[in-house]
């Protein structure tokens, strides 16, 4: 298993999802395994439209992974579908910081193209209602994420 190449945001999350596909058992430990260093100007701190737009590649990566591994079982596919949900959610959460109607429509179009099927998160219950909303309507899902971000900003 290798770290996803060519992805600029969220590649660590995708790697963790890929690990979860094949792991037999997960133990929690007090050891430091991975350090996140957010420095001024890092990709995880400054969200430009270009950075948000490139996150479509993360969805494409997972879709390609599923296509290239037809023997994945339902549980493994549900982990990957949950990862896609997380990416779509992150895209619209971060779009808030560089929002314009033009950017919104462009992102909506490219995400819709990548969501070529309904997501099935199986027994993963976290955010189940949000996944259902995303499956029902990308427009409604994106609208609720953006409105939620607005309320968060107003309450700060």
Describe the structure.
With 156 residues, the protein is mainly alpha-helical. It contains seven helices and no strands. The radius of gyration is 16 Å and the shape is globular. It starts with 10 loop residues before the first helix and ends with a helix. 60% of the residues lie in helices and 0% in strands. The chain has one domain (11-155).
Write the layout of secondary structure elements.
Blueprint: H1 11-22, H2 49-54, H3 56-68, H4 74-95, H5 101-114, H6 128-136, H7 138-155
Overview in brief:
With 156 residues, the protein is an all-alpha fold. Helices cover 60% and strands 0% of the residues. The protein has one domain.
Descriptive tags:
7 helices, mainly alpha, 156 residues
The tally of domains stands at 1
Unreliable residue stretches: none
Choose one word for the global shape.
globular
- Total of DSSP H or I helical runs spanning 4+ residues: 7
| Quantity of strands, as a count | 0
SSE-based structural type? mainly alpha
Taken as a percent bin, the fraction of beta residues is: under 5%
N-to-C series of helices and strands? HHHHHHH
**What is the residue-averaged pLDDT?**
89
The major β-sheet equals:
none
Q: Output the radius of gyration.
A: 16 Å
Helical fraction = 55-70%
Roughly how many Å apart are the termini?
41 Å
